[in-house]
Design brief:
This protein is an alpha+beta fold. It is 35% helix and 24% strand. The chain has a single domain, classed as Gcn5-related N-acetyltransferase (GNAT) (Aminopeptidase, 3-Layer(aba) Sandwich). Coenzyme A binds next to helix 2, strand 4, helix 4 and helix 5.
């Protein structure tokens, strides 16, 4: 299935919410799931001045996740989240490779825990630096 990126639209947000509202995903990311209100507020507050770059990940026509870069101190971090039913198909690796064509700022650091095998493997594959 072809993996593509596109701009985030409002209709994606409930899908992203459900994807992060998953104990297995939150456990992997070591990041507590947000409740719906906080999640929506977080996405709606993201600045539109170019400092945050975000894309929806599509596999075929399905919204399967998102990838975002943002400044954090003197680093630029990249976060990536795939709905659990789509894990293990190479989607994160393909989406990160595509994102690196859109996000031209360097260096980029993975926001995820490098010690988590799946997160670390994705980051190494596309040569994101550790956070
Ligand atoms: C981490 C995450 C993005 C991976 O998405 P994915 O689409 O399943 O990743 P991929 O299929 O591209 O696989 C990535 C790597 O993990 C490896 N992998 C797959 N399943 C694995 C498992 N059970 N254990 C260890 N490694 C595994 C793959 O082999 C691949 O490595 P390789 O390229 O060296 O072969 C996804 O699990 C996720 O969204 N988790 C919750 C959110 C999160 O933790 N985000 C990252 C921090 S910002």
């Amino acid at each position: 299935m072809q993996v593509r990126l596109r701009d985030v639209v409002e209709a994606d947000l409930p899908i992203f919410f459900a994807q992060q509202d998953d104990p297995a995903a939150a456990d992997m990311a070591s990041f507590p799931a947000r409740d719906r209100q906080s999640f929506m507020a977080h996405w709606e507050r993201m600045p539109s001045d170019g400092s945050v770059l975000r894309r929806t990940i599509l596999s075929g026509e399905d919204v399967v996740g998102n990838v975002v870069s943002w400044p954090d101190g003197d680093q630029r971090l990249v976060g990536y989240w795939i709905g659990r039913e789509h894990w293990g198909k190479g989607i994160a690796t393909a989406a990160l490779a595509a994102f690196l064509q859109v996000e031209e700022r360097r260096p980029l650091h993975s926001a995820g825990r490098q010690t988590q095998p799946r997160i670390g493997a994705c980051a190494r594959e596309v040569r994101l630096r550790p956070h």
